[in-house]
Amino acid sequence: MTLFVRAILLVVLVSAMAGSAFASSGLQRGSPVVSSVPSFFKSPLAAFTYIPCALCMVAGNLVFFNANGSFAIGHSIVSYVWNFGDGSAELKTTSPFVNHDYFGYPGKWLVTLTITTDDNVSDSVSQLVLFEVAPSFTVNLRILIVGKPVTFNASSSRSYGPTVGGYLWGFGDGTTGSGVVVTHTYSMPGAYRVNMTIATSQGNPTISRVFFVWRNPDVNGDGSVGVDDLIDVWTHQFTNTTQYDLDGDGACDTTDLIFVYLNQFQTI
Ligand SMILES: [Ca+2]
Ligand SMILES: [Ca+2]
Q1: Which positions ≥6 away from 166 have C-beta within 8 Å?
Q2: Burial of 181 (0-12, 13-18, 19+ CB in 10 A)
């Protein structure tokens, strides 16, 4: 290894380590501010899932809400405002996790979540919550990559009564799918709100989570993510070369470099 390469590696690693604190905490908090954002790169995006406490021995209809799948790049989410759809007062929290105890029938409510970022940009999502149905889904990839099929699987969902007629998906890029297991391929990097709706005899409850899709960090295409890719991305910093702009924010910058660094030796 030449001295020149060693020098590059040192700079790369130091800058990557400096940024790893925010990178490891997820893009929701503390990512670098993005100056020019392409139109497909929508942020923030509100999303939530819920778990009905259908088998709990508690009074009322207790529901756990989780908005941790919401997303904002370059800014923090400073508030979550919940309208639980039952006439109760809206609840404003700083935590993405809340629970709400409903009392009485019909056991389904249109719930609206509004998130706001520290630069005062908001996004809302409204979804039907059906107490006797617990929708959930898993994803088969740790990291979503442009051009790589990803499989969403809703077979972990449960119904405690209503007859399930099917599973409907919105992939957040304008396309939809149906079936308990679906596979989708994204063509552009960015943030996508994936929603899954269960069609039932009592109503169609929905949950959603935001997924971030990256360009492949194996930028030199040799089949693995390694130091060669790290150097490639580092040498293209601030050149606006699309191939090296892995998060699709319009520039090859530190965020892209850290993404490669964090995914060295990983199977992509
Ligand atoms: Ca490579
Ligand atoms: Ca970028």
Answers
A1: 178, 179, 198, 199
A2: middle
Query: Which ligand is closest to the CA of 217, given by its number?
Result: 1
pTM for the predicted model, two decimal places = 0.83
Ligand nearest to the CA of 240: 2
Distance (angstroms) between ligand 2 centre and the Cα of 161 equals 47
- Give residue for tokens 């997924």: 211
| Domains of the chain by residue range | 3-30+218-262, 49-214
Which-ligand-closest: CA of 223?
Answer: 1
For the stretch 60-86, pLDDT in tens is: 899 999 999 999 988 999 999 999 999
Q: 248 pLDDT exceeds 90?
A: no
**CA 42–ligand 2 middle distance (angstroms):** 14
Compute the C-alpha angle 3/223/268, nearest 5°. Answer: 105
The residues placing their C-beta within 5 Å of ligand 1, an ion, are: 218, 220, 222, 229
Instruction: Name the CATH architecture for the domain at 49-214.
Output: Sandwich (2.60)
* Per-residue pLDDT at 60: 86
